[in-house]
């Protein structure tokens, strides 16, 4: 376990940081997707002994690599749990990924790899959070290329919830107030006030996720989490969308395709920071779909890689903070890969990101120094915005050694 903790520290460059779905910079791996039963817009949460979690990624070369994976059981906070490998795996750990296919008819060559759980080698026997560590040549000390996070739930509690525009910060303004109710009749907890931990995420984001340990109202085995400042979220705005699944019939928002002798560039029409206008377009709550028009089921290996150029005219850069591109296609991570640069010559924020053909949702997020992230400076924030909140309930009574995931609910 010490080696795995070392991997964790290396990946996140911060001692004690949690596991996240991510690709290691410089690894030559791209387009990591962790989904449920082949649905590219789904969250990787499946019931125990039901459903399949799929892990897909590309390696940007045409020479097959020997990729191996290890599975780490995690606690509610996505840190390694105290369980031994044999306690949560039925089968073998440290297995090579042997399902792969070569790209076809693409300018940028790559090999696509696929892995699913359960499989012939591994069955996960405990509920909770899992991090799948993928490494080249079975080198988990120096060859880690990606981490894929997934969750197994044993449905033992029922959940309901509500999103209201009446919040602790005002009525019908910029915020949404969540109220969550849980019924734990099936578990008969010894101390319902302390045995549970709730994790709440908005559209799968990490930057504003919330953990709750203590409910506000209790009645037998029923509890409510209501009127809590932690459950007050910025409404934000609907996601922006771009679809470059075809070079010939591309969607709105794209100015042109340009080929520079080695790879295509998708030049987007300029975006604008319009904080006063709420958009009404349907979105995929930050998700993305790999797609090459005309390829159908072969899009995984026939979609090409292109550089997508994002631009936002702005008379001057925001002082006191940074602007990031927030998207499921970049794993909702706020890193150098998604940090927008400012061009003083053209007075605009810009970023060029290598992406696989398909349809993507994205937003611009502002991170003030030493403060929480916000969209008020970039996208605006509105109580009417349609968001999807994921609620995960973990159960750990006194004496237990791991956090069971006993409830999952999308609000």
Annotation field: number of helices? 3
Helix content: under 10%
Residue runs with pLDDT of under 50 for 5 or more positions: 1-7
Q: Beta-strand percentage?
A: 35-45%
Largest sheet: 6 strands, mixed
State the total count of DSSP E strands.
32
State the oligomer: single chain
What is the first-to-last residue Cα distance?
36 Å
What this model shows, in words?
With 411 residues, this protein is mainly beta. It has three helices and 32 strands. The strands form eight sheets. Strands 1, 3, 5, 7, 11 and 12 form a six-stranded mixed beta sheet that branches. Strand 19 and strand 20 form a beta hairpin. The longest helix is centred in the N-terminal third of the chain and has 11 residues. The chain starts with a helix and ends with a strand. The relative contact order is 0.17.
Concise overview:
By secondary structure, the protein is mainly beta. Helices cover 5% and strands 43% of the residues.
Question: Which SSEs are present, and which pair or pack?
Answer:
Elements: H1 2-12, E1 22-23, E2 29-36, E3 45-47, E4 53-59, E5 67-74, H2 85-88, E6 89-91, E7 95-96, E8 99-102, E9 111-117, E10 122-124, E11 128-136, E12 144-153, E13 158-164, E14 166-167, E15 170-171, E16 175-183, E17 196-202, E18 210-212, E19 217-219, E20 222-225, E21 232-234, E22 240-243, E23 254-259, E24 264-268, E25 288-290, H3 299-302, E26 305-313, E27 321-326, E28 341-343, E29 348-356, E30 358-368, E31 389-395, E32 404-410
Parallel strand pairs: 3-12, 24-26
Antiparallel strand pairs: 1-12, 2-4, 4-9, 5-7, 5-11, 6-10, 8-9, 11-12, 13-16, 14-15, 16-20, 16-21, 17-18, 17-31, 19-20, 22-30, 23-24, 25-30, 26-29, 27-30, 28-29, 31-32
